[in-house]
Design goal:
Length: 86
């Protein structure tokens, strides 16, 4: 692996690896140490992406999605009539 990286050949991203993670990995594999991402830069990028993910999964966003759904009455369960047994 080291030989490939030293030749500038990067490994393929792992399956289901987010593009931003692979980008960070590639930034760490630069052959010239001065071109590599600093630990501070890595942390900033992860923090930025984490904040994006949190915003994408916020409860408010989920509520907005609900307003865009089209509901069909056939999808609902109808309550059974209640009978009193006295």
């Amino acid at each position: 692996v080291v030989k490939l990286i030293l030749q500038g050949i990067l490994l393929c991203p792992p399956e289901d690896c987010p593009a931003y993670v692979y980008s960070i990995m590639a930034g760490c594999w630069k052959t010239d140490p001065l071109d590599r991402l600093s630990f501070e830069e890595i942390c900033k990028q992860f923090r930025r992406e984490t904040q994006k993910e949190e915003a994408d999964t916020s409860p408010i966003k989920d509520c907005r999605k609900l307003g865009q759904l089209s509901l069909d009455m056939d999808d609902y369960l109808l309550p059974k009539c209640a009978t009193s047994q006295l």
